[in-house]
């Protein structure tokens, strides 16, 4: 599920060759201080007086590549329990930006620690698959935003809080016109893969009741974790088993009674190991890789406790009705991390409720590979939605040998590689088109 440290193999050639009002705050300059130590992230004492999506403070920061502007907004949102919280969204502006087009890109943060947040990783000098996809969108002239949708408590796997965080982040970006130049009436699209698709899916299913005023015209979701329990069981004992402590701890940090249960059930000799994991990013949790999680607990069926099943069930996608936003979903049939059957069942349920969905099933890819190979079709879906290309009514289902060879995918990969070569040469993103 983690994309932060995965370089896209399809782009290997490139690496080898080389409320609108004035934002009511002063601008700050970003440093290298992690969020847990950065006063910018701290909520004000009067947080509850802010409306959802209201900007509390803002600042510019130096993005690693040459773009017109990079901004961070601390905004108010509400968690799944109704509590006010403050979190950050990052807004990136290309040269010659289309002020009426905004993409909210959901990173697969997949971590129970706020120092793993997208707002911090985007401030670091590294090239990731997420950045390649984001910069492909910037080259089209779209504004791109990435919200710390897990919130300050890093509640990874809590769908309700994550969805609210995405939608309120969009509200904040649309209210930042005097700073970023984004039109308050901009058309919006969402995109996320794996953990990012969890947040995207919850946002699209709750948008019509939580943020009906937003003009969201499309959303792309890949490797979508519909059922958390299915993923926890799928990865146990394998190369992705560190997702289990990350997911359990993240969800527990939303619900105090669940957190109390988890640490009452962990054996004494492993208490410190799990406490330490609360301040680690997913890639730092190698101590849990290929481990059977039952060994850490005083009951082998630790996931069957009532308090666990209660909150895992509450975080299952699909309980909030049918999305009205046109969707592109893509999933590997042999996904070893996020079981395919759950995603297919969700699509069928939403389609029965009248949704508009393009669903692509990929026969050859596995979970991480589809993040790359499926990216071109997702990108093209977003481009087509902004350009006004007609949609096919209802739902369409396609099974492909590999998404990398789908019509339009190869030319898109070529364009992305060319754009990244320009980026490596420090050409301003958006100055000369894509």
From TrEMBL:
GO terms for molecular function: triacylglycerol lipase activity. It comes from the Eukaryota. Gene3D superfamilies: 1.10.260.130, alpha/beta hydrolase (3.40.50.1820). Keywords: Hydrolase, Signal. One of its GO terms (biological process) is lipid catabolic process. Residues 1-22 form the signal peptide. It holds the Pfam family LIP. PANTHER family: LIP-DOMAIN-CONTAINING PROTEIN-RELATED, PTHR34853. Belongs to the AB hydrolase superfamily. Lipase family. This is LIP-domain-containing protein. It comes from Hesseltinella vesiculosa. The lineage of its organism: Eukaryota, Fungi, Fungi incertae sedis, Mucoromycota, Mucoromycotina.
